[in-house]
């Protein structure tokens, strides 16, 4: 018996003993699933119409691509920022538990959502030279134990065979962005990031990764640094959008 056959045999036995269950409700699911059909139905994919730049969903009957008011009034440095799901209900809960509840195993499910973003027409079929996770400030990383964006970027990297490299670093410990409006967020983030020493992004096509897109200010600031250092393009993918 080949090693591979042995391995899949063991997996089959393991799945009989410990059948995979839904992350939310513990119902038994297929070996490749993290959520049962019922829970999956409670997640919301972001579908058009949405802003072509930042993916902000628009509730209404527009069929053309449009640019939201938020993007129309700022300089956008990323080429597009794509989010796969609405950060609501169980999506929001899972990402929260992953980030703040130290439930690191949830990275697999969140990466699945992130991967769905790559199916968007703005990203599909596009070539990237490098995946770069949005960095956390070292103090915050110590506090949390990990950078969630790096964990997602590493899993994605293995799936799509593009190297993930932490080429950006966060040099300002910013207060949490949650309570700030757009202008305050932008000021808060100014000079918060820089390229790591002895790294080069010149002529690279970058795929920037984060777990959640809120206003896009963080991604925009990262993209500004990368473009300023010579990156040809910066597209961003996130699992969910607030
Ligand atoms: Zn379920
Ligand atoms: Zn927008």
Describe this structure in words.
With 242 residues, the protein is an alpha/beta fold. It has nine helices and six strands, in the order αααβααβααβαββαβ. The N and C termini lie far apart (50 Å). A four-stranded parallel β-sheet has the order 1-6-5-2. Strands 3-4 form a two-stranded antiparallel sheet. The relative contact order is 0.16. It has helices at 3-17, 37-40, 69-72, 89-100, 107-117, 138-144, 148-160, 182-189, 217-228, and strands at residues 80-86, 130-133, 168-170, 193-195, 205-213, 233-241. The chain folds into two domains: 1-39, no CATH class; 43-241, Rossmann fold, CATH 3.40.50. Helix 5 packs across helix 7 (148-160). One zinc ion (ZN) is lined by residues 51, 53-54, 56, 67-68, 70-71. One zinc ion binds next to helix 2.
Compact overview of the structure:
This protein has 9 helices and 6 strands, in the order αααβααβααβαββαβ. The protein has helices spanning 3-17, 37-40, 69-72, 89-100, 107-117, 138-144, 148-160, 182-189, 217-228, and strands at 80-86, 130-133, 168-170, 193-195, 205-213, 233-241. α9 links the parallel β5 and β6.
